[in-house]
What does this fold into?
Amino acid sequence: MFDNIMRVRNYRYFWWCMGSIVVAVGVFATQTSSNEPANGGTWQGLVLGVWAALLIVWLTLLGVRKRSYRFRLGTVQDWTSLHVYLGVGVLVVATLHAGLQFGWNVHTLAYVLMFAVIISGVVGLFTYLSYPRRIADNQQGQNRSQLFGELYELNQQGIKTARSCGPEVQTAAISGIQRTAIGGGVLSQLFARDLSRFETLDGVQQPNPHQAPLIDLVSKRIPRADKHDEVTALQDLLVILCRRQAVIERLHKDIRLQGWLQVWLYVHVPLTAATLTAVVVHIVVTFIYW
Amino acid sequence: MELLIKEVVAAAKGEAQVRDQALSVDEVLVGSSTQCHVQLLGAAAIHGRLSKSRKGLLFKCDSGLSVEVDGESVSQVIVEVGTEVEIAGHRLTGIESPTGFDAAIELHFNPDIDPSAFERAFKTRLAHTWLEQRRPAWIAVVLVAVFGLIVPWVVPANYLPDFVNDSIWSSGPLHPAHAIVLGDDCGGCHTSSFTRVEDEVCTTCHLQASLHTLPELHQTVGFDEVRCASCHQEHHEPVYLTVTDSALCTDCHAKPDWPNQVVQPVHGFSPGNHPQFRLDLVTPTLVDQGSGQAYDWALKSVPLATAVERSNLQFSHEVHLDAGKVQDLGTGRPLSCASCHTARADDEHFAPINMERHCIGCHDLKFDSAAPLRNLPHGDPEEVILTMEGHFLRAYLKNEQASEVPRRRIPDQDADLRRCTDTAQACALERAAIEANVQFTKRGCVLCHEVVDYGDVDLMVRYHVGPIQLTENFFLNARFKHHVQLIQDGISGDAGCVTCHAAPTSATSVDVLIPGIDQCFACHDEQGPDRQIALECASCHAFHPSVELRSLLTLQSKTL
It folds into this structure.
């Protein structure tokens, strides 16, 4: 069901895209000059160029359509499906327009930017097709706020329980709970880098990736406990820390998957703006030096 | 800085628990981030920093943030003993510092902190990081517009490095010849913005480019719409300059409906689509000149099918190529085409046929068997007469002197001389007249030339030798490569030539040995069943007629 963006209306937009490509190739193939290489200056090149430019403008308008709830022509799903197909199709049309003539100039800049936009879009499509299912599987019916709520409760219980333990465990557990790192910078979110730490009695901070060192410390303390109460508290604390660990891992994974689901847009959107500008520059420059 | 932090936690039974924490750092970070020394949920990630100052312990908020001190929002405060700083409901109070510490604070955590504040303590979305979409988008727009368009447009190229001047607008390389002259100066051709390159830019250097049509036809055939750049295009890869598609020609020539129509419709190069060949023949016209007549040689365009070459030459290719009749005197081998025809460097035309070079080896101009080394001069009939008269006068005078004293008789050699008993002068003139008649009408000039005998007594005006003008360029508006045509499967040498030129069966020089267009179609029919080697218009025709070549070739039709 997650790939229905490709299958909207029984692949209608796939066939629209294929039709567009076939027509473009047909127009291109009529460039039968014996010695003039295919280029954007022939009438076929101009037709392909205008077609590619219109496609780029329309593809950009998806950003407007998404925000326009009063717009009636086609659903957002229709638009998105056609956006995906024509987004790939414009690569063919623009390549034919260029006649495979590239160089260090603003014209090729527009092509390269467009190419980068399409690549980022394909990455985005891949994440849209596969990540929502993985996110749902990971959340197991709990959304992120609910996971944080559960973690908060476990933290409160953990701190409370830790205060019944000896100073070494108390310091380590409370600081470990307070210094649990979730998310963070771009790389930490995308690669679930865990910079959690805890403190020892002498104030030294130890790395606490995946909470394992803290859990290890508490579990090793249990056999050395002097009192029965302390053993109970340590066992309770261990259970809480392990439950925390499971919730934290799910949060890490959720943040990572959500990050990848969105990160391509931080490339796609600015590059789209750059492409649109480069296309305008390409057209204006063509007529400045006609 | 040595800082003591006392965390006060409300216990279940109402008795507060205190946990001491000693820090030894220059700067103590306070905020919700896990990297902070003092973690306060609900605050900003890094809300502020505690540090030692001259006035005491300084709490300074990060940019744009504030804390509450005595009900007022401040961005920084000196934390003295008793100063209470409130951050997101948490209270941070200055207390007396024990010995060994620079300062001490007491922390009272907000008991009402909720899970949503807890979640906000973490950066869990990319939107919480430095990543943005709008700002980079605007930056990209500005960068592309400024460096791709505005700067190259506004700032002269010589003030800019290559990667931002208007050379980045070039869609492809220039032809090397143009690149040498123009370099990166776009304005060399693009003289004004939003205007197509004008023909005057081209003709500044290409002065010799001749017009395709006559000036008087130029306007009426709509040729003004065609620019140099209609066919000559730059900035392509691979580099090429001239579009030679036949469609560019047939756009007009398929239906030549302009006034004074002198060309026939052409649709392509296949039977029915291209007119039959016409020849540009050098043709004589007799005109009155002085008391007599003279030849006026002019080029005439005539259909190949009815063309007759009136060069005044008497020549049989058939005889000369007959191995049984004619052999090279030097080698004894039969003559070949190349014995007389030498291709020029253009591979289309041939060097002029020349009496002294090509003919005299066999066709000598000896006229007196008694003087076997003596030849008549070629090309001037008066000189021929004078030569003979002088020669015989000298011979008879010498004979007269010899008769006065008995001398030994030379058998045969002077028999004719002794037969004449008149004066030496009379004998010489008589002998010259006889020999002239032989040379002009029987075995000398008449072999190759048209000779008219007017029967006049005066030898100087009696014989008229027709001047020879051979056509050297039968197609002034076409070009052709002989060498390519000679490459034929299983054929070499003269066999290649005679494939097209029917020389071995041509008995007279009025024959025009230029093959018809059907001969070309055998290989070059663009609609042929075997997809023969198609020709474009430009394969044989030049768009710019070479005026110089036309006049030059006309003049080079030489007299033998």
About this structure: Strands of chain A lie at 197-199, 205-207. Residues 169 and 218 of chain A are 7 Å apart (CA to CA). Chain A touches chain B through 69 residues (CB under 8 Å). Chain A has a mean pLDDT of 89.
